[in-house]
Amino acid sequence: MTGLRGYPDYYERKKILVKIHSGTVRAFVYIRPSTAMPQGQKPLREWKADTDYKVKQLEDYLE
Question: In this structure, is residue 27 part of a structural domain?
Fold first, then answer.
């Protein structure tokens, strides 16, 4: 299995639980713990925790 470029020197690999439509699965994430967010940086995108909305979007796309 190959990892993210810079692992393990710059990133930590952790296993987390990810909630998906059909349940929960385990996935690896790569985290760079020493990096600070620059002041004034705005997020590229905001994610809603509205599962019903996302499922509806997926169903509409699949139809």
Answer: yes
Range of the domain at 25: 1-33+49-63
Question: Could you tell me the two tokens for 38?
Answer: 């620059």
Distance CA 12, CA 30 (A): 6
1 in a structural domain: yes
pLDDT in 10s for each residue of the chain, 63 residues: 556 677 777 788 899 999 988 999 999 988 887 777 778 888 777 766 778 888 888 889 898
How is residue 61 written in tokens?
């796309």
pTM of the predicted model over 0.85: no
